[in-house]
Amino acid sequence: MNQSEKPIIPQENMTLYQRQLCGQRFKDQVIKGLNPLLKGTGWKRKSAWVFKVDGDWYLTAFITGGTTPDGMENLINVELGIKPMAVDPIYWKATGLSDNIKKPPSFRSNAAFKMPALPMAKQTWDKNLTDVEQASTDIFNAITGMAGAAIKAIKSKTYSELVSEHENADRYQTLFWCSLIAEGKGSTALEKMRAHYFKDGQEPDAQSQAAEILEGFRSVIEGKDAAHGRHLTTDIYGNQKIP
Question: What would the mean pLDDT of 193-220 be, rounded to a whole number?
Answer without folding.
Answer: 80
